[in-house]
Amino acid sequence: MRQIIIFLLMFFTALILHNTAKAQPNLNVSANLAVLHQQHSGYHFTTLPFTSADGQRHYRVYIAIPDQKAPANGFPVFYALDGNAVLDFLTPANMQTLATQAQPPVLVLLGYATAKRFDVQARAYDYTIAPADDNTDPLDSSRINGGADLFLDLIQNQIMPAVQQIVPVNINAQTLWGHSYGGLMVLHTLCTRPDLFQHYIAADPSVWLHGDLLQQEVAAVLKRKNTLSTRSLWLLNSRHKVDKIPKNPQVAARISIRNELIARQGSLRKKLVDELQQHADLAIRQDYFPNENHGSMFGKSLQLALFDPINRQ
Predict the structure, then answer these.
(1) Which residues in the chain belong to E strands, given as ranges?
(2) In 260-289, which positions are buried (b, 16+ CB within 10 angstroms) versus exposed (e)?
(3) Is 286 within 8 Å of 237 (Cβ atoms)?
(4) How many CA within 13 A on the CB side of residue 90?
(5) Per-residue pLDDT tens digits for 30-71
(6) Does residue 58 have an active-site annotation?
(7) How many CA atoms lie within 13 A of 272 on its CB side?
(8) Which among 61, 86, 103, 261 would be 20 to 30 A from 122, CA to CA?
(9) Residue 24: other Cβ atoms inside 10 A
(10) Dihedral sign from CA coordinates of 145, 149, 154, 156
């Protein structure tokens, strides 16, 4: 009996630690680039470098191309933000599964020229909007926000044309996926450049960042009466909250601030969706995951959006 009790204690301790780790992923972990060098059944990779207009941020765009002949209208395309971290979730096995789809997508992973999974300074700038009078990141004063439109210029004017030169793509079947700040970027793109993609997938989007800026963009869309026909928006939201605060004081401070801001996120997200639903021609889907937290929603949403055939666009 004593051995059983000890085993159960060890099991639940490990489970708690696992969930805590999922909630607060280490942003300094190295990227796992193994999939780029492994043999795949059905895909091959190529990598392209890019640099921001101001020369301050450097990118690596990882492109996974199906080995089969392209359809007459080109391959669908799945663009993913935080491309370095996305590589962690790609294996020869699930790439092979993806290749068996009737129309496997080209994967365009928008990463950074770093050995780490995340370039926290660059993504905090590239994926966010900010008021003109204060572009300081509320979670970390060493980070600057507000570069989303410049990054969209890079995607639209350089990255997309480069992808289209390498592989035939269906420009009417393109998806943008992002998590957290990346999810905010997805919604900003939908509101400001809806013609860039047809399908928008936002996991735990940081709609709380800088107050109601995103709601103002939605209001502008409604005022202009832009058509969003043939567009779809899929919101994936975590529900589980891990209350254990790490010992690292800087990380703990960010988590405390974020928890305070996220406390308002539910109402902000509902208001945003309610306003977007005034567009009768925009297909909106929302899913909630009570057993997932903010950190684990990265992999969960990617799995559902990319590898689950039921959810594939």
Answers:
(1) 43-51, 58-66, 75-80, 106-112, 169-179, 199-203, 231-238, 282-289
(2) ebbeebeebbeebeeebeebeebebeeeeb
(3) yes
(4) 31
(5) 999 999 988 777 999 999 999 999 999 999 999 999 999 999
(6) no
(7) 28
(8) 261
(9) 19
(10) positive
**Catalytic pick among 40, 179, 294, 296:** 294
* Contact between residue 243 and residue 299 where contact means Cβ atoms under 8 Å apart: no
Q: Which residues pair with 284 in a beta bridge?
A: 233
152 and 196 Cβ atoms separated by less than 8 Å:
yes
Tokens representing 45? 């990779």
Distance CA 86, CA 63 (A): 12
Instruction: Report pTM.
Output: 0.86
List the end-to-end C-alpha distance of the chain, in Å, as a whole number.
51
Distance between CA atoms of residues 185 and 125, nearest Å: 10
Dihedrals phi, psi of 43, to nearest 5 degrees = -140, 155
Catalytic choice (40, 179, 180, 199): 180
Rounded to an integer, what distance in angstroms lies between the CA atom of residue 124 and that of residue 109? Answer: 17
Nearest alpha carbon to residue 22 among 245, 297, 301, 235: 297
Report the alpha-carbon distance of residue 83 to residue 98 in Å, rounded: 17
Would you say how long the chain is, in residues?
313
Task: Give the span between the Cα atoms of 56 and 121, in whole angstroms.
Answer: 11
Q: Kindly state the DSSP code that residue 116 receives in the 8-state scheme.
A: B
Task: Give the 3-state secondary structure of residue 257.
Answer: helix
294 noted as active-site residue:
yes
